[in-house]
């Protein structure tokens, strides 16, 4: 097919939930993708923080190929080796004792909400159903995860949402404590608000939230769908803040490009999910798990890639801060940890993203649309950074004219 035909058929047959760019991508390798016409792009969006090892990483591809030829799907009525291997790696490298596999971040957060409610009901013998979430947060688009998403623009037309959710300002410990009642079940937070604009909390914020949750005997759920799997230079972002959650959710980078999500938790809490309380037909699929095992083994091997992520991040941030000095009338602030980087502009970032696309750079937006988001693969090299920043520079220069 030609690009025009693909776009026309998409417009004809797909439900229009996305406003897509007029580009048909056909191939990807490393940090590069090529469209159907052969044009090359540097991918600094990486499937929205999904392709942590870049496009078609060799080890992931080989393991997926082998698994597809061996066993594609059975069900969770039986044991499979890739699922157990993945569970072992996750548990041995996190705070958790148990893991439940699903297919996406939304599903993981939905399951985390269910798990926290049933655990609190079993523990206290009464319904503790209220959740405290942060303003400007994003946890997904199903009814439960949407209900704890603190952005009204996603709520419109879907009300009424799940009752018993209280929103408080992000990075405000006192607001959380004031919101707690005898019906509070859990606090759900992103360690760093990614979709909300790459908002980074104060150093002691999560530690103080952890203390409050312990004080009032409520659960702390950390949504690491976008911050996990090496994105911040640690395997999980909570490691930067010196705490452990009670429940953590993962997805995006976990499968190295394949769809998979996970709920991680401690033994006592996990036991609340007895047989028939929760399930997923495709959760823990052998092919997705094989991809995730290969992804995690690559990231964890000698700890090199996590250290490298932190080093290349400093280089990236230095280059971007140079642009901030060059364009103070456009760039308001640059913030980030690892390769989760947000550039807050003084106006909408839409024209900048479009200009970068024309010039061969894929980036995204976050927050209210005034934050440019860079979430490149962890394997991005200095030459790639230089080229990406150069394109971004040209786009900013054109925006001034």
Automatic annotation (TrEMBL):
<feature type="modified residue" description="N6-(pyridoxal phosphate)lysine">
    <location>
        <position position="252"/>
    </location>
</feature>
<dbReference type="GO" id="GO:0042802">
    <property type="term" value="F:identical protein binding"/>
</dbReference>
<keyword id="KW-0032">Aminotransferase</keyword>
<keyword id="KW-0963">Cytoplasm</keyword>
<dbReference type="InterPro" id="IPR050103">
    <property type="entry name" value="Class-III_PLP-dep_AT"/>
</dbReference>
<protein>
    <recommendedName>
        <fullName>Acetylornithine aminotransferase</fullName>
        <ecNumber>2.6.1.11</ecNumber>
    </recommendedName>
</protein>
<feature type="binding site">
    <location>
        <position position="281"/>
    </location>
    <ligand>
        <name>pyridoxal 5'-phosphate</name>
    </ligand>
</feature>
<comment type="pathway">
    <text>Amino-acid biosynthesis; L-arginine biosynthesis; N(2)-acetyl-L-ornithine from L-glutamate: step 4/4.</text>
</comment>
<dbReference type="InterPro" id="IPR005814">
    <property type="entry name" value="Aminotrans_3"/>
</dbReference>
<keyword id="KW-0663">Pyridoxal phosphate</keyword>
<comment type="similarity">
    <text>Belongs to the class-III pyridoxal-phosphate-dependent aminotransferase family. ArgD subfamily.</text>
</comment>
<dbReference type="InterPro" id="IPR015424">
    <property type="entry name" value="PyrdxlP-dep_Trfase"/>
</dbReference>
<feature type="binding site">
    <location>
        <begin position="223"/>
        <end position="226"/>
    </location>
    <ligand>
        <name>pyridoxal 5'-phosphate</name>
    </ligand>
</feature>
<dbReference type="GO" id="GO:0005737">
    <property type="term" value="C:cytoplasm"/>
</dbReference>
<dbReference type="GO" id="GO:0006526">
    <property type="term" value="P:L-arginine biosynthetic process"/>
</dbReference>
<dbReference type="GO" id="GO:0003992">
    <property type="term" value="F:N2-acetyl-L-ornithine:2-oxoglutarate 5-aminotransferase activity"/>
</dbReference>
<feature type="binding site">
    <location>
        <position position="138"/>
    </location>
    <ligand>
        <name>pyridoxal 5'-phosphate</name>
    </ligand>
</feature>
<comment type="subunit">
    <text>Homodimer.</text>
</comment>
<dbReference type="GO" id="GO:0030170">
    <property type="term" value="F:pyridoxal phosphate binding"/>
</dbReference>
<keyword id="KW-0055">Arginine biosynthesis</keyword>
<dbReference type="InterPro" id="IPR015422">
    <property type="entry name" value="PyrdxlP-dep_Trfase_small"/>
</dbReference>
<dbReference type="InterPro" id="IPR015421">
    <property type="entry name" value="PyrdxlP-dep_Trfase_major"/>
</dbReference>
<dbReference type="InterPro" id="IPR049704">
    <property type="entry name" value="Aminotrans_3_PPA_site"/>
</dbReference>
<keyword id="KW-0028">Amino-acid biosynthesis</keyword>
<feature type="binding site">
    <location>
        <begin position="105"/>
        <end position="106"/>
    </location>
    <ligand>
        <name>pyridoxal 5'-phosphate</name>
    </ligand>
</feature>
<keyword id="KW-0808">Transferase</keyword>
<feature type="binding site">
    <location>
        <position position="141"/>
    </location>
    <ligand>
        <name>N(2)-acetyl-L-ornithine</name>
    </ligand>
</feature>
<dbReference type="InterPro" id="IPR004636">
    <property type="entry name" value="AcOrn/SuccOrn_fam"/>
</dbReference>
<feature type="binding site">
    <location>
        <position position="280"/>
    </location>
    <ligand>
        <name>N(2)-acetyl-L-ornithine</name>
    </ligand>
</feature>
<dbReference type="Pfam" id="PF00202">
    <property type="entry name" value="Aminotran_3"/>
</dbReference>
